[in-house]
Specification:
The complex is a heterodimer of chains A (about 280) and B (about 270). Helices cover about 45% and strands about 10% of the residues of chain A. Chain A has about 280 residues and is mainly alpha-helical. In chain A, strands 1-2-3 form a 3-stranded antiparallel sheet. In chain A, strands 4-5 form a two-stranded antiparallel ribbon. Chain A is globular, with a radius of gyration of 23 Å. Chain A starts with about 20 loop residues before the first strand and ends in a 23-residue tail after the last helix. Chain B has about 270 residues and is mostly helical. Chain B has a domain of about 120 residues: Cytochrome p450-Terp, domain 2, CATH 1.10.230. Chain B has a 3-stranded antiparallel sheet with strand order 1-2-3. In chain B, a hairpin with a 3-residue loop joins strand 1 and strand 2. The radius of gyration of chain B is 23 Å and the shape is globular. The relative contact order of chain B is 0.15. Classes of the chains: A mainly alpha (about 280), B mainly alpha (about 270). Chains A and B meet through helix 4 and helix 5 of A and helix 4 and helix 5 of B.
């Protein structure tokens, strides 16, 4: 044992039991480790099921603590349609397709996709986007955007002009502007402060190379629904899950040759060994 | 014996080791800092953490040799490609290694092939070595093909016939003073038959499985030792792309995906 350093416990005070406000397990009458029924935020799971509540209701209930209003459910539902699939060219989707075709265990496919999707260029920075939107909500947008556009150093590397706004393939892409507009129009008349804010920012970017990234759309709608920024990355991953699952399983029973493989003639060794 | 769950509420009973403030770090009966640190290799420690026993340095060195041969910098390899995709989204290096490592838990390549290899070679061992003494040739004819195609886990590899890493590993094992054991001897017989019939030989995952079985390790232990064997190439692929533009790996235009599904159609009204 090392005698050089005297270790002293910090005597941190840890709780005796983990606490949660989300799930209450009702103990079975004949086994102390068994559950007879779950209650979520006070609601019986069986009753929720019997009364026809669905997936989006449960996501909202467990993350917000209350069942959604009809409008909130529709808004989260619409966001889930907008985010349902990152597209077959997105790195996260490409990762699950490659893993599936190379016969990775099926239970790993979604985790691989979510891990790749969790990068700061995708879901990982959604909390940063939400904090940026919150911090600037009451500021005059014109001067903010003028200063951002003046100091912008892109489009190389698809660098963001502000959290959630950037080029894609070094140019302005409109897909998520269009989806943001579609949601805004569908909920016309409702106070969608943050969704309006990202669309206003987008108007200032019309002549630039930058556009709305999916993280801005997710972040804005989550803020309008009352979510704290720390929910951002996980909610983005959750919403994109159906597409990742679908693309993964589509490839999982195909031969390895069902994805392109670059031949040796197109694999170029450059750099140090060729000096 | 029934498990006493009540005894496990709030208490941990470890046979592996642990750290107590002022009491040092114990690992499998050793003091980590006094007995292991600066004396053993990380592969010795990893194998000890799997099996509970500190292996000889030469065995850890041989396993390290397999890790070196198993994974190399080439972003076409599927697990490495996952590392590259991780760089494209600017996720962390830890994410790349974890996600790419998961990719290698595959029935086609990497660590996940272990159970099928073990099953195939155990079947051969029982039929041809002990308790039975059938001909290896007959075993191969009857068990190494499915639907007329070669299916012999531990033998052959994707894309190419032959594996330059196997003779290198055999030479290294000999240099380290290891003798060829009964599993490897059996595999060599199977290999010579497959070589004549199909031009195929032992693959690297097969080699290390048989070598470690000859050293007395269980299939679970072998799977644990090899769990992250595909990772060194993932580091390379991740770090090659982490500073490149996000879409600068095998860039895909929209037309580069061949959509073969339903043509565009009207969305029906949502059923109530």
């Amino acid at each position: 044992m090392n005698k050089d350093v005297k270790l002293e416990s910090r005597k941190d005070s840890f709780v005796a039991k983990a606490q949660t406000v989300i799930c209450q397990e009702k103990v079975s009458s004949n086994h102390e480790y068994h559950v007879k029924e779950n209650y979520f935020c006070g609601y019986s799971q069986v009753s929720l099921l019997e009364k026809g509540y669905g997936y989006i209701d449960m996501v909202y209930l467990m993350t917000r603590g209350e069942l959604p209003t009809a409008l909130d459910r529709q808004l989260l539902d619409s966001l889930s349609v907008a985010l349902c699939n990152p597209g077959p060219r997105h790195p996260a989707t490409r990762a699950v397709m490659e893993a599936a075709v190379s016969k990775t265990a099926k239970s790993h496919l979604l985790p691989i996709g979510l891990m790749v999707l969790g990068g700061d260029n995708a879901a990982g920075s959604t909390d940063t986007v939400m904090r940026f939107l919150r911090a600037n909500r009451r500021k005059p947008l014109d001067s903010l955007m003028d200063s951002l556009l003046d100091s912008y150093e892109g489009p190389e590397n698809d660098v963001e002009i502000a959290p959630g706004f950037a080029p894609h393939f070094e140019a302005r892409e409109l897909l998520y502007s269009n989806l943001s507009n579609a949601i805004f129009k569908k909920f016309d008349g409702r106070q969608l402060t943050y969704l309006k804010m990202i669309l206003d920012i987008d108007k200032h970017l019309e002549r630039s190379c930058c556009g709305i990234k999916p993280s801005a759309l997710v972040g804005a709608v989550l803020l309008d629904l009352g979510f704290h920024p720390r929910y951002g990355p996980s909610m983005y991953q959750l919403l994109a899950t159906p597409g990742l699952v679908a693309h993964a399983i589509e490839m999982s029973n195909k031969n390895i040759t069902a994805m392109p493989f670059v031949g040796d003639e197109n694999y170029h060794h450059v750099g140090k060994n060729d000096d | 014996m029934m498990t006493d769950f009540d005894k496990l509420r709030g208490s941990i009973y470890s046979t592996k080791g642990g750290w107590t403030v002022g009491g040092g770090i114990a690992t499998h009966g050793h003091s980590l800092l006094d007995d292991i640190f600066a004396k053993c290799s990380v592969f010795q420690v990893m194998i000890m953490n799997v099996t509970g026993k500190l292996p000889e340095r030469r065995l850890a060195d041989l396993v390290e040799g397999v890790f070196i041969c198993m994974s190399w910098p080439d972003s076409r390899i599927w697990c490495n490609k996952i590392g590259t995709f991780t760089a494209m989204t600017r996720a962390s290096a830890t994410t790349a290694i974890a996600a790419g490592g998961l990719g290698g838990d595959s029935t086609m390549y990497g660590a996940g092939t272990g159970y099928a290899i073990n099953s195939f070679i155990e079947s051969a061992y029982q039929k041809c070595v002990s308790p039975n003494n059938d001909s290896v040739e007959t075993f191969v004819k009857e068990n190494a093909y499915r639907g007329g195609r070669l299916y012999a886990p531990g033998f052959a590899r994707p894309f190419v016939k032959g594996d330059e890493r196997i003779p290198a590993m055999r030479r290294y094992a000999k240099k380290l003073g290891f003798e060829v054991g009964p599993y490897e001897t059996l595999a060599n017989e199977i290999e010579s038959i497959l070589s004549k019939r199909d031009g195929e030989g032992l693959n690297l995952a097969g080699y290390i499985m048989l070598f470690l079985k000859d050293q007395g390790y269980s299939i679970e232990e072998v799977m644990g030792i090899g769990a992250m064997s595909v990772t060194t190439g993932i580091y390379a692929s991740y770090f090659e792309y982490i500073n490149r533009p996000p879409e600068a790996f095998l860039s895909l235009k929209v037309e580069d995906i061949d959509y073969v599904g339903e043509t565009m159609r009207e969305v029906p009204e949502k059923p109530v």
